[in-house]
Amino acid sequence: MSVTIQTKESASRDGIRRFFRSAPLWIGILVIAFIWTLPTVGLFITSFRPEDDINNSGWWTVFQHPFDFTQYTLENYDRVINTSGMGAAFVNSLLVTIPAVVIPITIAAFAAYAFAWLQFPGRTFFFVLVVGLMVVPLQMSLIPLLKLYVDLGNATGVELNGSLLGVWLAHTGFGLPLAIFLLFGYISSLPGEIIESAYVDGASPLTTFTRLVLPLSVPVIAAFAIFQFLWVWNDLLVALVFLGTNPDRVVLTAKLSALVGERGQDWFLLTAGAFVTMIVPLIVFFSLQRYFVRGLTAGSVKG
User: DSSP code of 163?
Assistant: First the structure.
């Protein structure tokens, strides 16, 4: 009995000592988290304040009377969604982003499986070539690709410049090298016995891919989907180059940049507009975050 009591007391003392040893680390993490999230909190509070209050006082003044709901308003969100055309831009961003995520993932999954488990001439050369494309700056390829679109339009009559198909193909080309690299690292780390047993059972490479490899690769596919979705959703440069400023094709980022007005008089609307643009990326990230770390780290170490 005494031994049990001593063991419990010793475990309690060890727990207390570990707590105090790790206390500085936790304090540091909390301080960094507080500093990191403070601007977002201020932006969120500002988005609900009237224009005059935003111009005349800081957002922290709401804490003097936090439950005085007369100091809050939905006017900024109403103007952003119903007056500025952000609703149509929101739909356009979805039309651009969803295919620009699905297309490169589909192509990269087939390519990564081929590089990992199929034998064909030049496999190593083509894989090195694909990985090497990751170092090519995006800005270097915009003008040549735009010229290619114009030449193809003149030759075939298919206008890619200014169309959704053109921006889908652009984002697919820019995202494929990273997608193939990530998926290859994961798919190549799958146990070879599983692939070999599928071949022994008479499964074709396509059946093995669709029935076996693809379901096992969900974590890495979800991880890349987060990367690609956030990149395309928040992109401004590619959208401006390939879609231009056509009101029927304008995306959220382009609309947000024009929201302040020609003379910057409507800058306070950016607070509400920023949170409108953040809604979908937050939903996507929190929906897939359980796969995020697992998908990025799996396949990084073999053995």
Answer: S
Type of residue found at 131: V
Which ranges of 47-163 does DSSP label H, i.e. alpha helix?
51-56, 75-78, 86-117, 123-132, 138-156
Q: How far apart are CA 134 and CA 137, in angstroms?
A: 8
How far is 98 from 184, CA to CA, in rounded Å? 23
What would the CATH number be for the domain defined by 83-299?
1.10.3720.10
Q: What is the pTM of this model?
A: 0.78
pLDDT in tens, 281-296: 888 878 777 766 665 5
Q: Where in the chain is the domain with CATH 1.10.3720.10?
A: 83-299
Which of 103-107, 236-240, 257-261 is least confident?
Answer: 257-261
Which of 76, 80, 100 is CA-nearest to residue 90?
A: 80
Indicate the angle between helix axes 269-297 and 218-233, nearest 10 degrees. Answer: 160
Q: Return phi, psi of residue 283, to 5°.
A: -60, -45
**Alpha carbon distance 134, 14 (integer Å):** 49
Q: Write out the DSSP string of 22-42.
A: HHHHHHHHHHHHHHHHHHHHH
∠ CA 178-239-275, nearest 5°, is 90
Say which DSSP state 203 is in. -
pLDDT at res. 97: 93
Tokens describing residue 58: 């800081």
- Give tens-digit pLDDT for 212-222: 888 888 888 98
pLDDT reported for residue 1: 47
Q: What angle do CA 34, 37, 38 make, to 5 degrees?
A: 80
pLDDT tens profile 59-105? 888 888 878 778 888 888 888 877 767 778 888 899 999 999 999 99
Q: Which amino acid is it at 165? A: L
The single residue listed with the structure tokens 């003379």 is 263
Of 282, 181, 272, 180, give the one whose Cα is nearest residue 230: 282
